[in-house]
Specification:
With 416 residues, this protein is of the alpha/beta class. It contains 13 helices and 14 strands. It has a five-stranded parallel β-sheet with strand order 5-11-10-8-9. Strands 12-13-14 form a three-stranded antiparallel β-sheet. Strands 1-2 form a two-stranded parallel ribbon. A hairpin with a 7-residue loop joins strand 12 and strand 13. The chain is globular, with a radius of gyration of 25 Å.
């Protein structure tokens, strides 16, 4: 159909959503006009020898380069988007052509995103909109994104002063690559959450497939026994296949626990592979509002000294982070000042002499605390307002419109 009637079909359906393989399979590869080089025309000015004006790749970190390149040839212009800190391509059931790549550097990368990064201009999207609390994204922001992400939490939410991560310690037992007591605790927690907050979407994430299967079976059995329906939005997944999902509340089942002999043997699986830490990053960034971490271990019990790669070590650091957040010990940090002499900034003068701007008293503080503002005003320990100055955050804005319009608009939308 597309081979013979491409123009007519695209007039009827101008926007297509498909996998790269599908695009290559169903779309004809049109030749460029004879004798002309393949220069992409501006959008909207005709396709020339290309089927589409624009081809956009999403989640390109998960697309093998050789599967994406044919689809690129169907477009006059190409945009490739993805996150190099998330999952890389993985397909256990297909054989890839392999050969000695020592003299061909482009064959050393797997994903289309990594290949494109070698040749195309890059832009990093910094605004983070999923997590509504700083605690939910701060760990990944520090360990994966170089503290470059920008998060604007809701004013009312931060003033609740309720930890966004809850650490639930249970007495689990590891048998047959499963932890049944922990799975039962997860099921009980899911029912508790659905009863207390029926309007919230819930997801369960596990660190191995066997635990995922056990929790799914127990949930379905419990629903049948109680004659209740599981929420349609509820999912139970492991860290291998949760990328792209998000829920209001995420429940983690760590799984690891002593066996019947009291021995603690931890097989970290894909987490201990090269790039396995990306799986952890994906898992801990799925929640919009709250994370419940169900664990049979305390952070110091997770032994990672003998592990080869960064994944297990970062997992232990995340457990320590979650434990501190759950205990109410999380303290937000202002964004580090880079490229400026800190003592000469206007915000330093405001902090040193708050009476210049505020009717300050013993209960009102002007401090540098939140990473998305220059000065934070707190009254009796609660957030009151923000002061923006023309210091380094202003000059780091992507444009004058971002500094003078978007920042204010977004803050007001978040009730600041």
């Amino acid at each position: 159909l597309l081979t013979h009637y491409a123009d007519e079909v695209l007039k009827l359906v101008p926007c297509w959503l498909a996998s790269p393989e599908s695009v290559s399979a169903i779309s004809p590869l049109l030749a460029s006009p004879k004798g002309e080089e393949k220069n992409p025309p501006p959008l909207g000015e005709g396709r020339g020898g290309d089927l589409f004006d624009l081809v956009i790749f999403d989640e390109a970190s998960q697309c093998y380069a050789e599967r994406g390149i044919p689809a690129m040839f169907r477009g006059a212009q190409v945009v490739i988007t993805g996150d190099s800190q998330q999952l890389q391509p993985s397909d256990l059931y297909r054989v890839r052509y392999e050969e000695d790549t020592d003299d061909q550097p482009d064959l050393e990368v797997d994903s289309l995103l990594d290949l494109a990064a070698r040749y195309l201009p890059q832009a990093q999207l910094r605004g983070h909109y999923r997590s509504q609390s700083l605690e939910l994204i701060d760990f990944s922001n520090r360990h994966f994104y170089g503290e470059n992400l920008e998060l604007l939490p809701d004013f009312r939410l931060v003033n609740r002063q309720e930890p966004a991560i809850a650490y639930l310690k249970v007495e689990g037992l590891w048998q047959n690559n499963q932890n049944r007591p922990e799975a039962e605790a997860v099921v009980a927690l899911v029912w508790q959450l659905t009863s207390r907050q029926p309007d919230k979407e819930i997801g369960v994430v596990t660190f191995n497939f066997q635990q995922q299967t056990l929790i799914q079976d127990l949930l379905e059995a419990s629903a049948a026994e109680q004659n209740r329906m599981l929420p349609p939005s509820l999912f139970v997944k492991n860290i291998e296949n949760v990328q792209g999902d998000e829920r209001d509340i995420i429940v983690f089942s760590l799984g690891y626990a002593p066996d019947t002999a009291g021995r603690l043997v931890m097989q970290f699986g894909s987490l201990n592979q090269q790039g396995g830490e990306n799986r952890l990053n994906v898992a801990v960034t799925r929640a919009r509002e709250k994370i419940h971490l169900v664990s049979s271990l305390l952070p110091h019990q997770l032994r990672t000294d003998g592990t080869l790669h960064a994944g297990p070590k970062l997992l232990r650091q995340y457990l320590e982070y979650a434990w501190q957040v759950s205990a109410g010990k999380y303290v937000p940090q202002p964004r580090p000042v880079r490229g400026f002499v800190s003592g000469h900034l206007l915000k330093d003068k405001v902090v040193a002499q708050p009476n210049l701007l505020l009717a300050a008293d013993a209960n009102t503080l002007a401090i540098k605390e939140l990473p998305f503002a220059d000065v934070t005003v707190k009254h009796n320990g609660r957030y009151d307002s923000l002061i923006l100055t023309d210091d380094e955050l202003y000059y780091q804005s992507s444009s004058a419109k971002a500094a003078h319009a978007y920042t204010h608009m977004l803050l007001q939308a978040k009730n600041w």
